[in-house]
Design goal:
Blueprint: H1 3-29, H2 32-49, H3 57-107
Length: 108
Amino acid sequence: MTSNSSSKTSEELLREIRKLEIRLDDFLKEVFVRELRKYVEKLKDVSNRIEKLAGKPNRLAMLRVEVAQAFYETLKSESKAQHEKSHLLESYGALILALEREFQKLCS
């Protein structure tokens, strides 16, 4: 085994570890939880306002649009979080493969 091939494998392993670390940071920065909390707060607000708007169809319609918009933002946020999660899963696999290659080089 040459030191060059061992070094290459070690570099691959370190690169995959760094990618996982970056992707984890991206995933943790995702705004889904904040958007979900905002949606819950919007629903609380709506529950407080809805009875006051009885008999005011235009105001009720505007309130419904507000709720739909908040729900849309929450779903959009979840979609982004799921996308980041898929990158994490990809990194897990790449890291395991890099580890296996490193072990294989060390055992040969």
